[in-house]
Amino acid sequence: QLQLVESGGGLVQPGGSLRLSCTASAPVLHYYTVGWFRQAPGKEREGVSCVESVGGGHTNYADSVKGRFNVFRDNAKDSVYLQMNTLKPEDTAVYFCAANAGYPGDACLNPNEYNSWGQGTQVTVSS
Predict the structure, then answer these.
(1) What is the pLDDT of residues 75-110, one digit of tens each?
(2) How far apart are CA 17 and CA 123, in angstroms?
(3) 67: enclosing H helix or E strand
(4) DSSP for 72-108, written as a single string
(5) Can you tell me whether residue 114 is helix, strand or coil?
(6) How far apart are CA 79 and CA 97, in angstroms?
(7) How far is the C-alpha of 95 from the C-alpha of 92, rounded, in Å?
(8) What is the mean pLDDT of the chain?
(9) Distance between the two ends of the chain, CA-based, in angstroms?
């Protein structure tokens, strides 16, 4: 399985921004659909955003983050980023990236479609 590492989490005030990054143990991330997920204490893991592999490029977002979050790739760095703007306290969670060698289409926000996961990075939105 592909090893993934997230970074970029931290503490931010409401209305602030953070950028999360996802990298892989081998330079193959561009072949994978990458999903971003989050899990708050006592809640189930939920899909936030996903991006199809290079060549497809479809993206999808949870309704709760549309217009605020943006997922994109840096092909030179073979990385995937989640730019999070206008953060709200309810965005507080551990954020994970995950990879799928295919493209699950409309199911790309379903965590069950992924078998390679990072360890997560904490995002806390608080004043």
Answers:
(1) 899 999 999 999 999 999 999 999 999 999 989 999
(2) 11
(3) none
(4) EEETTTTEEEEEE-S--GGG-EEEEEEEESS--GGGT
(5) coil
(6) 11
(7) 9
(8) 96
(9) 39
